[in-house]
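Invent a record, attention on tokens:
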Amino acid sequence: MHKILIVDDNELNITILLNALGNVYDVSVALSAQEAFEAIEEELPDLIVLDIIMEDINGIEMCKKVKSTQKTAQIPVIFLTAAHDTLKSMAYEAGADDFMGKPFEGALLRSKIKRLIKD
């Protein structure tokens, strides 16, 4: 089963994502970028679902760090955010593989994940 890491500082968003993905993927969660980096050190996920606006390190900076390290550069990142589309170009410049706004459609998110994860 493919491992998905959800990074979001909002517990309600995490619950919604767990409901959308938990039956299909092995999902772990991090409430901050720092927690996410620790989780990535423990076990590399197959894909990261990442919020842009977070308290400690924002998602753009986290994505840049993930994509700049040889060990993690190949991990696909999907931004899932309520932030305006003006951040979309920043997300792609940071190395994002895809972008979705909130609220999101679970089936569409699962389709995007399936497209990005290599068997």
